[in-house]
Amino acid sequence: MKERSIREVISHLEAQTEQLREREAWHAQQEAFHHSEQTRFAAELAAISRHLESLRWAADLAAGALGKAAPARHENLGSASSPKLSRMVEKVLADLSPETQFGTQWMAHEVNRRYGSRLRKPADGRRISVVLRRFSRTGRLKMVRPGRPHWEALYVRTV
Question: What is the pLDDT of residue 111?
């Protein structure tokens, strides 16, 4: 083992001290930069959140006005005790553009959102899947991606 003189040890410790001071100063600069960026993004997030809430409020107001102006009583969805799920899916499909891809879970959510009050129990992916497969066999829908155990099938409307 090599013995060092006191001067060498002091010199080595001074070099380490200087290096650590430089690192501390650099990290302080980075902290100030990140703090200013965090402040900027927080302000942007607050502004966009306000816009989003305003837009949601306006959309709810418009949907309420449209709902009052055109009641949905004329929709023939089957009897009140046994509404037809396939007719509900058809109504949702009519509002989609032909290039919009969708799966069973999205369709179940949309059917429940629109017609949940008319259903005895909420539509689930299994029941919707039966309707979508039938529509695919009859040519109303085109299957874009077949379903697998870990992902659902995707469909698009045919023109």
Answer: 92
